[in-house]
Design brief:
Chain lengths: ~450, ~300
């Protein structure tokens, strides 16, 4: 009796263990049981019903209405034969999740990408070159701004189609300029004037020894490289070029803002309140930021008037701004490439762009949508000079890319941390950065 | 039974298993859940990780065998030295400090004082609090608008930027670690202190020992097993530290200038930020070997100072 009980328990355990082993990769067949009516409709049209899995971070952080969800709903209405399993995720940790899914064999068919992600994924062969599909389909690329397409190319391949782009302009707090008796900045402002304004606008209003209002805030560090035309490495990415004078001049200008002239908040000031909220609180006079700020600033800022102009001309006479962009890409592992491309055309095309643009999300890469709707959507909103976003496109440049960019970027930003704290000089920082970057480029 | 002996078929697999397990069957049965968890979630990943450490797996592309490249890189990568240095500093600061403070607190909480239950609970709360929440609170407390700097500036001093200074950031995080994990060791020491027999102390008192003498010659030797336990666990835990560093360094970058990057943090960076799974696995195994050596040294040395070990 006792022994048979042991036997039963043991065999039950073995059966359970077998089941446990079996349930791992096969369980994804569930979508076969989708909507019966939908299947009937598409059967009548003679098309195989397919399901594609899409993940995206677009509009997640900026737009509470979930503009991207509406884009997918619109696609779903236009293409009932393709069922979209859509997941909207926060930008933080998005790329980590995506990489883990790819490694685990559960990658989506289509995913949103930013510039750095796309370059890494293209180099690893995880996303497909869309050119063959574009040619086969006769898809018209001339409706996009060329610069937004260029961003998502790698070795001549088009690895993504742009869904939104943005650049950085200079917001200014009119009340602070009025109080200081200064003329508002315009697009002819050079670096000397910019620094002169910064010094006049930076104040310790309550006299306690800490600065309460800053002239400006520092941009993300790659800007100061673009500002003097410097590059992190040579054209064929074999040698670090940060020790050249152009890079040193650019980063010196950045370090001077915080360390020497103290007109921009330091890391410590930013730990207490970030520059975004400082501008909202009237603590930054000239704030470089992109169109993703428009919705919140229009809602939150009620105490002062503000407008925008282009970023100033750099210390060596070059005018530049960041070009940022987000794209959608098709994953190499996708077995539904045709349906995925159909989705790509819709969500990055005029229909998808229009929905995002109407929700006020960044700027549409489709020329007709940006020109027709961006300024119209901005009517009655600040900045009044909204055209500055379209004007800035003329001199916008994207951040340099490399398959190992996040590692290279960390090597540079780590050294800039030390330079910003005054622990080392800018030339020393660049020498150290190159010592780390050269082995990475050699790998 | 005797008659059927010759007719009996050869014993099946289950019969053999049952026979071999014999009277220990239920013992094995009860440890089975833990055993399965250790096998599935510890041992299997451990072996896989060891394999990965000899490849250049990027998560995205399929892995290629690179022999010992990841292990030789440990000695040429300038960041590795920095992060191991940071981690040892972190450990050698936080572990002894934690043991000293928690022993002191346990002694205080072992007295008959008012509100004993309250104090014992209060010191244990940070242990169970989520480290993300603890980090957020301390980042705020140490910021320019935080209570420490407000106090300093009100006295006319300049505010201290502990977390933004390369010389103080890691120390600040290690001290938060001590504060957070104090309660765990307090509980261990309290339990040990309550095991010290009153008779011994009373006998010593009768013989004229003062309270320092009683502590030094009776209480302390009797709780050395607890000190040994907390030291071993503390070293293992602190050398693997990740969460406080990730959450308390600016933008989760282990900065400023890598000042707060620990080995655990660098492993995470390599694995998920730089897509270098192979190198991350190699660093993990280097850390594991170091942990094993340190634990072995502690284990050997226990005979010299731990009560009841010869």
């Amino acid at each position: 009796m006792k022994k048979s009980l042991q036997f039963v328990v043991l065999s039950a355990l073995i059966v359970m263990a077998t089941l446990l082993g079996a349930c791992a990769p096969v369980a994804t067949e569930a979508p076969a049981a989708v909507d019966v009516t939908k299947a009937a409709v598409t059967d009548a049209a003679g098309v195989e019903p397919v399901t594609i899995k899409v993940v995206s971070f677009l509009t997640y952080n900026e737009n509470a209405d979930g503009a991207e969800t509406k884009v997918v709903e619109a696609f779903q209405a236009a293409h009932p034969e393709i069922t979209v399993d859509f997941q909207l995720l926060p930008y933080a940790d998005y790329f980590t999740s995506l990489k883990t899914w790819i490694a685990g064999g559960t990658a989506p068919d289509v995913a949103s990408m930013d510039l750095a992600m796309l370059q890494e994924m293209a180099a690893a062969g995880s996303i497909v070159d869309l050119n063959p599909m574009i040619e086969a389909d006769g898809y018209d690329l001339s409706q996009y701004y060329q610069s937004t397409l260029d961003m998502f190319q790698n070795n001549g391949g088009q690895y993504g189609l742009p869904a939104s782009y943005s650049n950085v302009v200079l917001y200014y707090n009119k009340s602070l300029f009025d109080a200081a008796g200064l003329a508002y900045p315009d697009d002819t402002m050079d670096w000397a004037t910019f620094m002169d304004y910064n010094k006049k606008l930076t104040q310790d209003t309550n006299g306690d020894g800490t600065i309460d209002i800053f002239g400006t805030s520092r941009l993300w560090w790659p800007y100061y490289m673009l500002l003097t035309g410097a590059t992190p490495f040579n054209a064929d990415a074999t040698q670090c070029t940060l020790t050249e004078q152009a890079a040193i001049d650019g980063f010196q200008a950045m370090v001077d803002l915080t360390l020497t002239d103290k007109v921009a908040p330091s890391a410590n000031d930013l730990a207490a309140q970030d520059d975004w909220h400082m501008f909202e609180a009237g603590r930054i006079a000239m704030y470089p930021i992109g169109p993703w700020s428009i919705t919140e600033f229009n809602e939150v800022i009620t105490d002062f008037d503000w407008d925008a102009t282009t970023l100033p001309i750099g210390p060596t006479g070059k005018k530049v701004t960041f070009l940022f962009g987000n794209a959608y890409s098709v994953l190499s592992s996708s077995k539904q490439q045709e349906a995925a491309f159909e989705f790509m055309k819709f969500v990055t095309g005029p229909e998808g762009d229009q929905i995002r643009q109407d929700a006020g999300f960044e700027i549409a890469p489709i020329k007709a949508v940006a020109e027709g709707s961006f300024l119209k959507a901005m009517e009655g909103k600040k900045p009044v000079n909204a055209a500055v976003f379209l004007d800035s496109a003329a001199f916008a440049e994207s951040v340099p890319t490399h398959a190992r960019w996040s590692e290279i970027a960390d090597a540079i930003s780590t050294q800039l941390d030390s330079a910003l704290l005054g622990d080392i000089t800018v030339p020393e920082a660049m020498q150290n950065a190159c010592d780390t970057i050269n082995p990475i480029l050699a790998e | 039974m005797e008659n059927s002996q010759t007719l009996e078929p050869p014993p099946s697999f289950f019969q053999k298993l049952r026979k071999n397990l014999g009277k220990y069957f239920w013992g094995y049965f009860f440890v089975l859940p833990s055993l399965l968890i250790i096998l599935l979630f510890k041992l299997v990943p451990l072996i896989m990780g060891f394999g990965i450490s000899f490849t250049n797996w990027s998560l995205l592309a399929s892995p290629e065998f690179v022999q010992f490249a990841n292990y030789t890189k440990l000695f040429t990568d300038p960041t590795t030295g920095k992060v191991f240095g940071n981690t040892f500093y972190y450990s050698f600061l936080s572990v002894p400090l934690n043991i000293l403070l928690s022993l002191g607190l346990a002694l205080a909480l072992n007295q008959k004082i008012k509100g004993l239950a309250f104090f014992r609970t209060a010191y244990y709360i940070p242990v169970v609090a989520a480290s993300v929440a603890v980090s957020a609170i301390w980042v705020w407390l140490l910021s320019d608008f935080g209570i420490f700097n407000t106090f300093l500036t009100s006295l006319g001093f300049k505010s201290l930027n502990l977390l933004q200074n390369t010389k103080t950031a890691l120390t600040a995080i290690a001290l938060v670690d001590v504060w957070k994990n104090l309660g765990f060791n307090v509980i261990i020491f309290l339990a040990a202190l309550q095991d010290v027999p009153d008779e011994l102390r009373e006998a010593a008192k009768v013989d004229g020992a003062n309270s320092w003498g009683i502590f030094k010659n009776i209480t302390l030797p009797l709780i050395t097993p607890a000190i040994f336990f907390t030291a071993v666990m503390g070293v293992i835990g602190s050398l693997q530290t990740f969460d406080l560093v990730y959450n308390m360094s600016m933008k989760h970058e282990g900065g400023p200038a890598r000042a707060t990057s620990t080995v655990g943090f660098y492993i995470w960076q390599n694995a998920f930020k730089y897509s270098k799974m192979g190198y991350a696995a190699a660093i993990s195994f280097a850390l594991m070997v170091i942990l094993m050596v340190l634990t072995l040294i502690q284990w050997r040395m226990r005979r010299k100072w731990v009560y009841g070990e010869e």
